[in-house]
Write a structure and sequence with these properties.
heterotrimer, A: 722 residues, alpha+beta, 7-stranded mixed sheet, 5-stranded mixed sheet, flat, C: 241 residues, 10% strand, elongated
Chain lengths: 722, 336, 241
């Protein structure tokens, strides 16, 4: 009998190797069909009209002109008269027409009247927000911070740190194609949550008076153009789209336009903080005090935990939520962690500078405060330092060179939980020897298909191309949503069990012909063989032929014994700062990351590269810019909502922790952790280069020049900012 | 984008007949890289697009009596490929090159490069070219003006002229060739780019029934050492925060005369005559270039959030001068 | 996203209050209300004689019938309704009836089911819609389909129509230059044009040369390797990438 446990390193043919993603050819040839690409016979296009106000009561909706327009087939009201809208751009009415252009014209022709209500769209300056828009959510005290800051032999560093709201900016915008066939609904959804999506529609349509059982709803997501935490729900547009389909009897495609995507479909909460942090002269952390605030949109719950990872014995951490009208917060890759890392690791680096310590020495001095993960960081720091040549390159603050262009180094550490989502997998072995793996998961571009393929093939001793992976469809066994870096563990462990169970069925059928019992057999290198006696074997194909007419199947669920949680990572960044212009450019970024057992090294490394690049984006460029006068986003586009380009990222070096101490923990998850540190590492590198902290991200020329004192701080660069 | 009529005339005369008395009657469609975005955003409205790319006469790059003439329908890529432009009118090549998108190079035309509309985000979000509230107060002055004007902003217009061709052309004493109902006319760059003063006025002195047919640069500019420098946040396509074009007429190692024009700092290309004067009779060094940069920003009137652009403009001028003179300087490049 | 055009001068009025306690916004798509009202409500005054008849008699968007029967109509004016358009796409002539306002990208995606080119920014910024016109990379979101007549249009579907993998696509796969893959077809098209038109591609030159495309997942490290690898492979063979 084959055993569930991960094979030892010397027994892995595929796991842990650099394997190209199996859906790569479809994507790189343009043949992959995303939900946005689905065209159905007779399909209509849906468009929405959004609120002109950041906060208002809707007093009148007149859709008559739109309904009379040529090609318009249906109108659905999302927010009815008498109800409130909470951000500019919130969807109020959806229309469907026979061409995309006509749908847009019809949406334009909808007349809506409002009673405006008070609103707030800024949050950098908590004082001006006022009590109406703020809610204290945390005031955590550990030890005796007041007394700790009174000690005489300590060094105290105080500073302001912050980063604004940013967006997900998924390239495939949110949306779907919906189609009814009698009482059955098919949805091609751009989602991170294939198996859970039917329930979303059951509830959402139910609220609109349309009863449809979950078993009548088919959800398909073969390819997904980016989610980053923002695509778990059906959302108002999904429900409206299904209503329009129902009303018109036609399939409807309704994907958000870019300005709508940027306005509504995902805000990452901001975080601003005044911090005081103290250490003994030898660098031992003593106390932390932070007064922090940030926005999570119209609702505010929960709070980021400060300080991050290195918690001294004395802490006071206050957090106030700013309830504003910028559109709802959505989970953004490692929710809260990049913000916490910037504030906390920025403050720690400032303290190290005040102590005249190399920040690496400072972090290592205090690394036991990281608890269980201290060993991981101790392993990773020397590797990162070697890859960056840290000791040779690092210099004390402000000694970044004599010319106008200064170089500097910065670092940061991070952690994340991971573990597996709850997924169910079915592996089918056909009598002709072909194999399929069925699982209701989804591949967001992280390499999920490839990972499932690898685990199935490894378990059955087959080459990759002997296995067909079927996912992205809720007709397959349910799998959890892809969030929190839980997919690889969820699908790998369930697939491992399913494949093992299927194999054991097969072994039982084959055993008699090999004169052995099932538990004496193994699958290896395209054969079924007797353990310890490899000459006694039959080929995989011959073995499967013994199944007769019926395939064998194995089911598997996510299991804890094949996975664990909790990873650590160290990142180091080298930047160049033009002190005449405030322009920051990347030289090099090193990421050392653990994630337990790695299934596919190639796509794992890609996850880390991608996270670092996303990190360059939010460190240097990204900001959702709101205007309090008009209550709206000023940059709902990709022209002034700036993503990093190919020329902006410098050299990136990724090192994955593998081998003893890492592999045996099983799978953990990787998507989120490496995106946590870039903000802090890059901000710290800029401080190291120019000798002063640029308090807030993004590190744009205005902010850098203000920190250098070359220009007066513009109105509200820190505080009062729109 | 509202529906519109479309015509693709073969001659300028036919094109002119298709335009209307108001800008909303018809729009000239060149590369479309700005126009289609304006229409999609309902920022501008038009009843008809007049495609001028089928007009053969607008496609030529010519040496005209030693000067340079570039037809309005010539693409930026064609400008970049023209060795005469690259060798003798480098500011033009620099300006095109800095738009770091091959797609834009392949699509955008010289005519559209001059006639594109401001990128002010209040304008682009539907609040009008002046972004005024009903009481006539400026949303820009009281709002987020980080990308707005630091010169020429005392009137209603606070936006910046987005064209990098404007400064380059002005530095090279270029002219803009226009045809309208009354026949052809020429405008200097300073006549063409204007700061609108009241509602209804535009930032170009171009009537609704007129078409830009070409730009030209006189032979006298051929020997000038010219260059353009710009500061933008990203390596790839990104709007410049500031730019500057410089043309130096040299006698041996000293500057006989100079022209310096700032871009992206005012509602029109902004000549820095004092800066140019400061170079006369001087050798170009880091020091004289820096002094010219200081002179260029005298009198700047930054808004609440764009004081940093004064510093950027200063450095931009310095580096543009050094570039034109072929002298090295340090700038942050990052790694590839 | 459509927002209302008619959302009235109440909104403009309200902007004046925005510095008070309860600010109220103006409308997004009301750039210049009087001008828009003038167009829509009051008709057109002082229109030049040559154009006035057309402008006043044809109500925009009022008909879906083909007008003027294509290119041969009076004074060559087409639309605003649907008109016949012929496009040379990947070597095949494709006939469509579309309004002049339909972009090449929408014609490809919505009318011809050629969905390799993606709609992302729809404003000539991100490059996801990149196709070749006469061998040059352009943003198909910002070219009118009617204007692409008479030109050779190559979409990613036409790079390797036989179904194999074009060397650039292969290099993207080999170097994992893709994650979600939504920017990938646009990047592949930009990269093939770059290699085709660049004698000596360099790593240093890529930031500028591929500055017209954006990726969100962060695949640039793979793309840098992929484009240089494909360039080497194709230059050695003397063929086009």
């Amino acid at each position: 009998m084959a055993d569930y446990h991960w094979p030892p390193a010397n027994h892995r043919e595929l796991i842990g190797k650099r394997i190209k993603r199996i859906d790569g050819p479809q994507k790189s040839s343009g043949r992959a069909k995303y939900s946005f690409d689905i065209n159905r016979p007779g399909m209509l296009w849906g468009k929405m009209a959004g609120s002109a106000y950041a906060h208002a009561k809707i007093t009148k909706i007149d859709t008559s002109a739109a309904e009379a327009m040529p090609g318009v087939k249906g109108v659905v009201t999302i927010v009815p008269e008498g109800q409130e809208v909470f951000w500019a751009g919130q969807e109020i009415v959806a229309v469907a027409a026979d061409t995309e252009e006509r749908a847009e014209a019809a949406a334009d022709a909808i007349k809506i009247e409002y009673q405006p209500l008070p609103y707030l769209v800024t949050n950098a300056d908590m004082q001006s927000a006022g009590a109406q828009f703020t809610k204290q959510l945390a005031n955590r005290v550990v030890g005796d911070p007041d007394q700790a800051f009174q000690q005489s032999d300590i060094v105290i560093s105080e500073g302001h740190y912050g980063l604004p709201v940013i967006t997900h900016c998924c390239l495939e915008s949110h949306g779907q194609v919906t189609e009814w066939n009698g009482d059955n609904l098919t949805v091609w959804e751009s989602t991170q949550n294939v198996s859970g999506m039917a329930g979303e529609y059951v509830q959402g349509l139910g609220e609109q008076g349309i009863t449809v059982p979950a078993n009548n709803i088919r959800v398909i997501t073969q390819y997904m153009g980016g989610g980053f935490g923002s695509k778990f729900a059906a959302d108002t547009w999904g429900i409206a789209c299904a209503q329009l389909s129902k009303k018109t009897g036609r399939p409807v495609k309704m994907m958000l336009e870019r300005d709508h995507e940027q306005t509504t479909a995902g805000c990452r909460p901001s975080l601003y903080a005044h911090v005081k942090v103290a250490a003994k002269r030898d660098g031992t952390l003593v106390a932390w005090d932070s007064d922090a605030w940030g926005t999570q949109g119209p609702n505010a719950e929960g709070s980021p935990r400060l300080p991050y990872i290195l918690e001294p014995p004395n802490v006071r951490a206050k957090y106030t939520g700013v309830l504003n009208n910028i559109g709802p917060a959505r989970a953004w890759r490692a929710p809260n962690h990049p913000q916490m890392a910037l504030v906390s690791n920025g403050a720690m680096e400032d303290l190290a500078a005040k102590l005249n310590m190399d920040p690496m020495d400072f972090f290592l001095k205090n690394i036991d405060l990281a608890g269980n993960h201290a060993k991981i960081y101790r392993d990773e720091f020397p590797i990162a330092a070697r890859l960056m040549d840290w000791k040779a390159k690092w210099h004390p603050r402000g000694q970044g060179g004599s010319g106008p262009v200064k170089r500097g180094l910065g670092l940061s550490i991070h952690t994340w939980g991971g573990r597996g989502n709850q997924s169910n997998c079915q592996v089918v072995i056909h009598p002709d020897g072909s194999v399929e793996t069925n699982i209701g998961s989804q591949d967001l571009g992280t390499g999920t298909r490839t990972v499932i393929n690898i685990v199935t093939a490894e378990t059955l001793g087959l080459p990759l191309n002997a296995v067909k992976v079927n996912l992205g469809d809720n007709r397959y066994p349910p799998a959890g949503a892809s969030g929190g870096s839980t997919t690889v563990s969820g699908v790998s462990t369930s697939t491992r069990r399913a494949a093992t169970n299927a194999l054991n069925e097969l072994l039982a059928k084959v055993a008699p012909s090999l004169g052995a019992t099932a538990d004496q057999l193994d699958a290896w290198n395209g054969k079924i063989l007797v353990k310890g006696n490899p000459s006694k074997s039959i080929s995989w194909k011959q073995a499967c032929a013994k199944l007769g007419a019926s395939p064998v199947t194995g089911m598997g669920r996510t299991t804890n014994d094949l996975m664990s949680s909790g990873v650590g990572g160290v990142q180091m960044s080298e930047v160049e700062v033009d002190t005449e212009t405030g322009i920051v450019r990347m030289i090099k970024h090193v990421a050392v990351q653990d994630c337990g057992l790695i299934i596919d090294l190639k796509t794992a490394e890609s996850q880390v590269y991608g996270a670092c690049i996303m990190g360059v984006g939010y460190s240097l460029y990204e900001e959702k810019i709101m205007d309090q006068q008009i209550g709206r986003c000023l940059n709902p586009n990709m022209e002034f909502y700036k993503l990093a380009g190919l020329g902006d990222i410098g050299e990136i070096v990724v090192h994955m922790m593998t081998g003893p101490g890492y592999d045996e923990r099983g799978t953990i998850g990787l998507g989120e952790p490496p995106v946590v540190s870039p903000g802090a590492a890059i901000s710290n590198a800029v401080a190291n280069a120019i000798g002063v902290r640029v308090p807030e991200l993004p590190l744009s020329p205005d902010r850098v020049l203000a920190a250098l004192g070359k220009v007066p701080p513009a109105g509200g660069m820190t505080g009062g900012m729109a | 984008m509202d529906a519109f009529e479309y015509a693709s005339p073969a001659t300028v005369k036919e094109a002119l007949a298709l335009l209307g008395a108001n800008f909303q009657d018809a729009s000239v469609y060149g590369g479309g890289t700005d126009l289609l975005s304006l229409l999609k955003d309902n920022v501008e409205d038009t009843k008809r697009l007049v495609n001028i790319k089928k007009i053969g006469a607008l496609h030529a790059i010519q040496n005209e009596r030693g000067g340079l003439r570039i037809g309005a329908a010539v693409t930026l890529e064609q400008v970049l490929s023209a060795s005469d432009v690259r060798e003798h009118f480098r500011a033009i090549t620099d300006a095109a090159e800095h738009i770091s998108s091959p797609q834009i190079h392949n699509m955008a035309t010289v005519g559209g490069w001059i006639c594109q509309r401001p990128r002010c985000w209040y304008y682009r979000n539907g609040f009008g070219l002046f972004a005024l509230d009903k009481n006539g107060n400026s949303l820009v002055t009281n709002g987020d003006n980080r990308y707005h004007a630091i010169f020429g902003n005392s009137g209603l217009a606070k936006f910046i002229s987005p064209s990098s061709l404007g400064p380059a052309l002005l530095a090279l004493d270029g002219r803009i060739h226009i045809e309208g109902p009354n026949g052809p006319r020429e405008a200097t760059v300073e006549e063409f780019f204007v700061i609108p003063q009241k509602e209804g006025e535009r930032e170009h002195a171009l009537g609704p029934q007129e078409i830009v047919t070409a730009i030209s640069i006189p032979a006298a500019s051929r020997e000038a050492k010219s260059a353009m420098y710009e500061i933008r946040q990203k390596e790839g396509m990104d709007w410049p925060l500031t730019s500057a074009a410089v043309a130096l007429r040299m006698r041996g190692n000293t500057v006989e005369s100079a022209k310096i024009v700032l871009g992206h700092v005012a509602p029109k290309p902004w000549p820095a005559d004092d800066a140019a004067k400061s170079l006369e009779g001087q050798t170009i060094t880091e020091e004289t270039a820096a002094k010219a940069g200081d002179a260029a920003v005298q009198g700047a009137t930054p808004l609440s959030r764009n004081g940093y652009k004064v510093q950027l403009a200063r450095v931009t001028v310095k580096r543009a001068i050094l570039t034109a003179a072929g002298l090295p300087f340090t700038e942050a490049k990052g790694a590839a | 996203m459509a927002s209302n055009k008619e959302k009235d001068d109440a909104l403009r009025r309200d902007v004046s209050k925005t510095r008070d306690a309860a600010p109220e916004p103006a409308d997004k798509k009301l750039p210049d209300l009087s001008r828009r009202r003038f167009i829509k409500g009051a008709g057109i005054a002082g229109v030049a004689a040559s154009a006035s008849a057309l402008l006043t008699e044809r109500v925009l968007g009022s008909t879906s019938q083909p007008q003027n029967g294509g290119m041969g109509g009076n004074d060559g004016i087409l639309g605003p309704g649907e008109v016949p358009v012929t496009l040379n796409i990947n070597g095949k002539m494709r006939k469509l009836n579309i309004e002049p306002r339909v972009t090449l990208l929408d014609a490809l995606r919505n009318h011809l089911d050629l969905t390799g080119a993606k709609k992302v920014c729809d404003r000539a910024t991100c490059g996801a819609c990149t196709v070749h016109l006469d061998g040059r990379a352009v943003y198909s979101c910002t070219v009118l389909a009617i204007d692409a007549q008479g030109r050779e249009i190559t979409t990613i579907e036409g790079l390797e129509p036989s179904g194999g993998l074009h060397p650039m696509s292969q290099a993207f796969w080999d170097n994992d230059a893709q994650q979600c893959g939504f920017c990938t077809p646009g990047f592949v098209m930009a990269c093939t044009a770059y290699v085709e038109h660049t004698a000596h591609p360099t790593r240093e030159g890529l930031g500028h040369a591929l500055g017209g495309n954006l990726c969100r997942c962060g695949t640039y490290m793979g793309i840098k390797d992929a484009v240089l690898e494909a360039a080497r492979a194709t230059k050695m063979k003397g063929g086009r990438a």
